[in-house]
Each structure stands twice: as C-alpha cells, then as structure tokens.
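TL;DR need structure tokens for one chain.
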Amino acid sequence: MVGAAWNNREQVDAFTRTFGVKGYDAYDELLERERIDIVHLAAPVSQLADLTIRCARAGKHIILGKPMAMNVAQADRMVEAVEAAGISCFPFQGIMRLRFAELKARIDQGQIGEIVVLHQTSRWSIAEDWYHSGSPGWFADPAQVPGGAFIDEGIYWVDLFRWLSGSEVVQVEAKIKNLVHKEIAVEDWGMATFTLANGIVATLEASWTINAPRPTGPSPKQNSVVRFEAVGTRGEIIDQWFRAPGRAVLAAGAADWVFERQSEEPFAPPSPSPLTHLIECLEQNRPPAATIQEARRSLIVALAAYESAKEKRSVHLSW
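>> reply
TL;DR here they are.
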C-alpha cells in the first residue's frame, strides 16, 4: 500500500497513521502523484461509478466495492470504461467465489447429486461508516446507496447463487422491511426467492437485525448468523461461520452427516485475499474469478428484488 484518499481529513489521517502511508483529500491527486498498480475502491456506492471510470482511464487495475453502482445505467458506463481500458477489475462481491471454490468443485463432482435448492441466511449487526463510529452513516443514506441491508449483505450471495448453479436468475420474489432499526431510511431486513433458468430455487435472507449486546456499535461479528445450505438430490452441504461445526456434509450414499471442520476465526482476514487473487491473476495473465460484467448481472438481480418488494409482485428477468 502506498496511499489512501478520502474526503474526511480526520479519518484519512487516522488511517494513514495506522498503516504508514500518505493521505490525500482528492482522489485524482493520489492517482497522479503515486505509482499505483491496483486501486481498492471502498467509497460510498454513489461515488463508485465515477471513481471506477477515473481509475480505468488512468490504467489502474481495480478491486471494486459493493454493490457496484446505484443503478444499471451507472453499471453500464463502468463496464464500458473497464473494457475500453483493458484493465482487470475484481468486484469485491465476488469473494465468495474464492471462499467456496473447494465446495463448488465438490458439488460439480456430484457429491450430493444435482443441486435443487440453495439457502443463505446472512444476519449481521448494522453497518458502520467508520471503525467504531457507532453510526451507519452513508450505509443508511438513500442518496448514497441503492438499498440497505438486503443488497449490502446479500449481493455476495446473489453472485454465489449464479456461480454455483451455472445459471441465471429468471424470477424474483422479495420482501423488505425495517424490523429492528425502524429509524433508518433504508431497510434492515430482506428476504427473496430466486428461480434460476435451470430450475434451481435459491432463498436469501440478508439483514442488520443482530443487536446483542447493543443495537449499535456494531455487535461483535461472532454474534452474526451466516449459514449456507446446498440441497442436492442425493445429499446436502451446510457451511456456516462463527458456529461449530463450520461445515457438515451428508454425501451421496453416506450413512450419516460428517462434520468436517470448525468455524473460521471471527476476525480472520478474507481467505484467499481479493488483493492476492488479483495480483496472481495479473502475474499469470488470466482473468479473475469474478468480473465487472458478472457484478453487473448480480446488481440487476438484486435491484429486481427491490422492485418485487415495492410492487408486491414477481419480477421476471430475461438475459
């Protein structure tokens, strides 16, 4: 890391002191002054389109924050800029492709038969706009995000559903509400059912409803509920964070469940790291596991869930 830029001077000073790098108030100043190969964009969603286009035109490879854009029109401009520049862009929402690579290989090998249903529960405490700020800030500002907990926590899993199934979502039915944090301007809970073109049904619950031991803060990560289930015609796989067992498998022909591993450390870094993955891809001249084009498709699906909830009807997608 060589530098960081952010429009809050106090916050950028704290960050740069911690990591021993230069801080800038203006994004362009950082791009112009420093020798940079990769930029990690972690700004509010409303700024990501402009920043992606600037970085692409400057020839910088990108780790793109999530969700990628406020709307599909912005996403289209971002994809066009990345393609025109010929740079690599790994969308952060694609990290589940890295984390679940081994699981996907087992599913593809038929260890639980053919997949028929996918479930994901992802209940976290409310987001914070800065380390220990105690406030969601821009995460709960409709001018800066396309939605609340459902898209913030759920976009990872929309991408995973599409990837694991090898199919596109063609129908979405969803509900969103404020169950715990009724004072914020975006939802703190959402649930959706996705029907994929190959017949697989996937369900997703994504929320900020964990509020113990306190309603803001947030609550410790290990209090969150993150549980994935793949249901096959001959078995099942359950994978969960912060709980034991971390993974349980009922394989095809098995007499009983096998508990394979413990849960991961609550504050462990992502593994594999998106940055490490992107560097390896650049060095080996291969595309990353997820692309900005894939991120655009997942955004379309997530936005369709909001349309379904608002209009109280199923939304059909064609590709």
